[in-house]
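Re: the 222-residue chain
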Amino acid sequence: MAVVVPNMAEIFEEAYERAGLEMQTGYDLKTATRSLNLMLLEWQNRGYNLFMVDSGTLALSASTASYDMPVDTIDVIEHQIRTGTGTSQVDYALTRISGSEYAAQSVKNTTGRPSQIYVDRASDGVHITLWPVPDQAYTLYYQRMKGLDGLASGIGTTAGIPPRFVPALVAGLAYRIAVKKAEAADRVMGLKAEYEEQFALAASEDESRASFHVTPDMRGYR
């Protein structure tokens, strides 16, 4: 059985109804679109969820230390240098360092296989700098947190949001609409609580299922 996901028109109507309102004019659509886009930006500040993680590669050139990440990148969360191919392929993890640690590096033009990466989350995008500077061509394999696409006109699809997050999307939009409407003021706190609950439910489900093992260090005990 297919998962039934409401389209954006239905999501807007549901959000207005939860706020005790009715979407009647073109401006109602415009203000709901604006609220939804702002909410998606807010989600990017709530930490990353699996549906926001994307994998990619970047070709590194000899003697070039700094590179620009794709424009919708929020952060780089995993990074490895790959050498060789086939059975001789080897991945080397890069250690992420801070801006101050990179600035303190006294010999920045040292060349070799990169072992450290500085991720600069600047206002114009995310940029990375590798050290040592690549001495030959390498391939950088990375996982990044990407931004969420907003809506330009208001009626589109929810393709960028997985079904498990749609209840949080509707609840959050209803809350944001109620905040802007005086006649819905008495519903604001209840809608906010519902939004936070739905987002927490989705976020707790949207996590890795990898096994996790803890082994105590018993060397100090006899």
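Residues 50-146 form one domain.
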